[in-house]
Amino acid sequence: MNTREEVLDFVHHGAERFLPHLSIDCAIFGYHDHDLKTLLIRHHGQENWSLPGGYIGRHETLTEAAHRILAEKTQLTGLFLQQFYTFGDSATRMNRIKTEQTHNTTYSKVGVTLSPDHWLSERTLSIGYYALVDYLQVVVTPEFLVDDYCWLNVADIPRELVYDHNEIIQKALLTLRAHIFQQPIGYNLLPDKFTLPEIHSLYETILCKQIDRRNFRKKLLTLGLIRQLDEQRKIGPHRSPFLYEFDLDNYSRALEDGSILSF
Amino acid sequence: MNTREEVLDFVHHGAERFLPHLSIDCAIFGYHDHDLKTLLIRHHGQENWSLPGGYIGRHETLTEAAHRILAEKTQLTGLFLQQFYTFGDSATRMNRIKTEQTHNTTYSKVGVTLSPDHWLSERTLSIGYYALVDYLQVVVTPEFLVDDYCWLNVADIPRELVYDHNEIIQKALLTLRAHIFQQPIGYNLLPDKFTLPEIHSLYETILCKQIDRRNFRKKLLTLGLIRQLDEQRKIGPHRSPFLYEFDLDNYSRALEDGSILSF
DNA sequence: CCAAAAGTGTTCCCACTACACCCATGT
DNA sequence: ACATGGGTGTAGTGGGAACACTTTTGG
């Protein structure tokens, strides 16, 4: 929704195209150079940051909706995207705490006031997804109602996101840290060929702890999750690191066998 | 909904009390004596079995709704109940495959034909929960539209449940097996005091594999998850087994430390 | 030659595995 | 006495953790 007209059409006819009472919120994690960041946006007239989100089209599957929403925010397709929980408990989400006011501030940009029985004012449950991207590849193009966006280190996320978005992002992080042992998460955050220090630092960043380099390499190689290549990368005035690539076949086989990483 | 009147009221006025487009489905796992069973129901006029489910009241939280639905089916409260996934992809769930017919067969019991735009005919996403109960304690009281119910061993679940319920139950099982290593699942399926053979058999049943008795005991005691008591239980013409109880404090501490069971 | 980063091997120990015999109880 | 089920200990091993020096490279 990049123009006033699109927004107005959404407000007035969105209920015909989208399912009411349900939304999708995405915790988009971007990794780069020892930092794990999340994409936050701020809607027009709102003080607090939000997770990017959207609604589910009446004729698209849930998975399709999540990918579409992610693509609208990042312009990237085919990303790693994973559902992790559905939120329907918090007081803000129950409309027990009045949030129409802030909501209305946003839509006042297009000269609309939402009545309490407008579909956008109704109680909405949210299905949480998390995505992994290389945030240097992402070109964020804020939509019409979005005043601002930022990539924040997960440690620096403010305590006051809108609604229950703090809860959502905390659960996303926990899920990500649990999944890193069971999914080829690095595959989605690293280039096809990467160096050992790169993947090592990725794991250290996501898990917030130090991992012994030698043991790390040994384990990944022993399990056959990565393959060492003959090439090296030039990195300036230092020794050239070798390149590696993922062995996805082995990865999936290892997962089926129940082999599990741990550090 | 135990009378014709209640059902009629639900059909005609349910949309005022419940959120449309959303339901909850519960995989209710009952354990007893080496068997892991699931509660299935068959709605009036339907050939295939379903998971028990229900809708979310407009003024109750998601968690409250799940507990209420579970209590309606089992008459038990305070059970272990865990959300695990939200389903919105399958063709049946997209209304791409016509299921109104079967749906209508059910409601024909109260003389109602649902139009395609009736709220019960619309596309509905389902939030999956799984629960753990001792099925000997459960008194199933089928509702008005339920013709039949059964406890089936999870290995014997027919391949043709309604909608995507096979998918839901498979995911529930996978989640249960993953959670057994990280949650005091036995706590919800065993009496406060239990014998070692009891908890041992529970784990073997859920994980579908044999576990060495001695190693099993050693691990649970070493991690401090259970405490041996001074009491024994009389079990007829055999040696009296000792009783144990869970040490929930230690359990949560172990989880925070990241200690994890494995067998 | 120096600074910065990457490469690599060994030891130790704990935790998991495998395994079998004795004991208690009621009939 | 016996049938049934419960209780218990040890030895061996494999995988994880800890640990430091050498090599490469460009400036």
Automatic annotation (TrEMBL), chains A, B:
CDD domains: NUDIX_NadM_like. Signal peptide: none annotated. Residues 19-175 form the Nudix hydrolase domain. The lineage of its organism: Bacteria, Pseudomonadati, Bacteroidota, Cytophagia, Cytophagales. It comes from Hymenobacter metallicola. This is NUDIX domain-containing protein.
